[in-house]
Write a structure and sequence with these properties.
two-stranded antiparallel sheet, mainly alpha, single chain, globular
Amino acid sequence: MGAITSLGDAGGLIPLIVLVSALTWRSNRRHALLIPLFMAGTGLLQLVAKHLVDRPRPNLEPWGFPSGHVLSLVVLLGLAAYGLAGSRARRRWRLLGGALGAATLVAVAASRLYLDAHWISDVLGGFTLGLAYLLAALLVLERGGLARGGIAGPGQAGSFAYMPWTSAPWKRATWLVGGRGSE
């Protein structure tokens, strides 16, 4: 279980971030450069959340909520799945990639519980916070929310207010299995 849980440690995440960025580089250089920035934001988000909640772990060590391992892997594996879904890979490879990412996430979450490093609420909190951050990251990737002068203002292309809701990233639930989306 220690080897599985190490995928969420810095020693396991950094090579995974480099790998996902390198694999994304050929298809979309902008996305490849943004992945490490999103992951740095993930680290900052988990530190702020842990500091604000300040709840001990089952083994009585500090800063249990949310699980940083789960939060980080939700974001990284979600970005990887999004990139894979947008690729020209065959459907079976997209399915295999999604299944491998989901299995990895479940295994790491289970290892955190098994090793008595987190309560189940810590793991669920990490998943929920990671999913919210992932959706925000996908919004930035999909709509170009990081414009040249910073984040786009209201009514400008790339802003949240400008985005048509019918093409929002979370509306594209079929991207993993069926194709590019519901459009």
